[in-house]
Specification:
Length: 346
């Protein structure tokens, strides 16, 4: 039975065996975390290209699960999209998924996200982000997957003093468990490439934003609070900066990797145009035509002072060229925010 408009819910191995009797066509892409912010936007792009896409997501409660379900509402109606509700920690699920689907590419975006929460729950982050990645690499190895794309993070650079951040810079000093798990994921990808000749590309995303951004992330949170007249908390003195990258530019970068046989590479995907925190707030104020009530807070442990991507490698290898500048991106995000009325974002 192939469920096109309803997800396959995985409760145990028996349910999985009963639920999947039909093997999809070849050239199928597995997107883990495919109902999330980056994942759902990516799945939409791939589905519109008539590629077969499997979304694996466990709909955990890191933020309100109905938000993710709304993200993929349109996708569930598409004949070349399949949702499987399950967890990358379930090795039996992954083994059977790869055995019964002709998956030839994996885009691994599933992870416990966030720097600050990882300081409070390091064991959970280790389990999901490291063990889950090993599980996927093991399944990919066994099934002969031709391409494995890993969603890494600019957080691996920590408080790097050299800017912009280059893939050749040392990343031996992570300042959060989240950053450490992402670096571990990169190293695991290299190991599996070296031993099993799997093509692996680790993409270091630089603060992705845009429609469907997670509600706890700065741009989304600030927009929501300023719009409702509530105070926002700014940590530090407002001079910290981030290299914000619009979602469509990130999707362009991921898409460009799909047919690249590079062996193993680490590639930055950013905008190369960092903006100070206080300036970001100003752009949101302008887009909303409302003033922020700012509550100044002490600098938070685990937060990097700046991020700044050197995208030379991405340009040379992927022909990557980000197009959406921060002013336009914030304007588009605010327009999307204003339309959101049917899902609780807390």
């Amino acid at each position: 039975m192939r469920l096109k408009s309803s997800p396959i819910k995985i409760k145990n191995v028996t349910d999985f065996c009963v639920s999947i009797a039909n093997i999809m066509d070849k050239n199928t892409i597995l997107v883990t975390g495919g109902a999330g912010f980056i994942g759902s936007n990516l799945c939409e792009r791939l589905v519109k290209y008539d590629l077969n896409v499997i979304c694996l997501d466990n709909f955990n409660d890191f933020y309100n699960p109905p938000i993710k379900r709304k993200n993929i509402r349109w996708l569930l109606e598409q004949p070349n999209f399949e949702l499987i509700e399950g967890d990358i920690l379930y090795t039996n699920l992954l083994e059977m998924l790869f055995e019964t689907r002709s998956i030839n590419k994996v885009i691994h975006l599933a992870a416990r996200a966030g720097v600050r929460p990882s300081i409070k729950q390091p064991l959970l982050y280790e389990e999901v982000n490291i063990r889950g990645t090993i599980n996927l690499l093991e399944a990919a190895k066994a099934s002969g997957v031709e391409q494995f794309i890993f969603g890494s993070s600019s957080s691996v650079y920590g408080n790097n003093k050299k800017v912009p951040f280059s893939e050749d810079d040392a990343v031996d000093n992570p300042i959060s468990p989240y950053a450490a798990t992402k670096r571990a994921g990169e190293l695991l990808c290299y190991t599996y490439h070296k031993i099993y000749d799997i093509n692996c590309i680790a993409l270091r995303f630089f603060t992705v934003y845009g429609p469907r951004q997670r509600p706890e992330m700065a741009i989304h949170k600030f927009t929501r609070l300023i719009d409702s007249g509530k105070p926002i908390e700014l940590f530090g003195d407002g001079s910290s900066s981030r290299d914000y990258t619009y979602i469509s530019d990130i999707i362009d970068g991921i898409e460009s990797c799909l047919d690249k046989k590079l062996g193993f590479e680490i590639i930055n995907l950013g905008d190369s145009n960092p903006i100070k925190l206080i300036e970001l707030v100003g752009l949101i104020e302008d887009a909303l035509d409302k003033k922020a009530d700012i509550k100044w807070m002490q600098h938070q442990q685990g937060d990097a002072y700046t991020t700044y991507a050197d995208t030379t490698k991405a340009k040379n290898i992927l022909n990557y060229s980000p197009r959406i500048k921060i002013e336009e991106g914030i304007s588009e995000f605010v327009k999307w925010h204003i339309k959101q009325t049917d899902v609780n974002l807390t």
